[in-house]
């Protein structure tokens, strides 16, 4: 397999709800995913994590670091004084103002990795962030510090959610969102590599989650101008009451799942000479 012709396809939000998790397992069983990112701070994680343990042998399974949805695993008196994580906008404000309580954040990252490992019986293959929090100034350094303390350099890969300007322009898919994340994550890749961590090269998958749009057409744009270790995020799943109570992204999850299970996905990959692969196995 030529190194520059692979693409890793990662489903985010495993553990968010039973329906979301069940949908991701369907795509995983069908061989349409090469990575899964798990939320571990909610009540669905232990049970759904055991299902993933039994069925995730052919994909990278990682931690979807969460600092903006639900409750922390233990008290965070400064960052989550009411016992609930702040919204993303507040996390960004604190990060840019350099007012994040980094000791609390490091401790919470340790707790989330511990909870992942307690179920999966091993360290995560990768770490990324819900709403891309892993790239924020301060949070990224806390993450690198925790992973280094656990001696995981070279053993986990990290999601660089930014990409080159020419690649973003070539895709013409949610460019404003892609540019915003690129700006917030400026320097992430450089710092991660300097500290000994593997990162993807190429990133796509930004969506406006509009159920009136053809997800397949959007996905086709994600494959334009791929990097040599290209990563595409997706959000498949089934809608259930838990999901409706937690997240505004609902109908499009079922649309994404339908696309992933359809013949259109392998046809698109073959047409572009791309092959699904695990980033943990890419050198």
TrEMBL record:
One Pfam family it belongs to: YdjC
Requisite cofactors: Mg(2+)
Membrane-spanning ranges: none
SUPFAM superfamilies: Glycoside hydrolase/deacetylase
UniProt xrefs under CDD domains: YdjC_like_3
Keywords: Carbohydrate metabolism, Hydrolase, Magnesium, Metal-binding
Cited PANTHER family: CARBOHYDRATE DEACETYLASE, YDJC DEACETYLASE FAMILY MEMBER
Name of the protein: ChbG/HpnK family deacetylase
Protein's organism: Methylocystis borbori
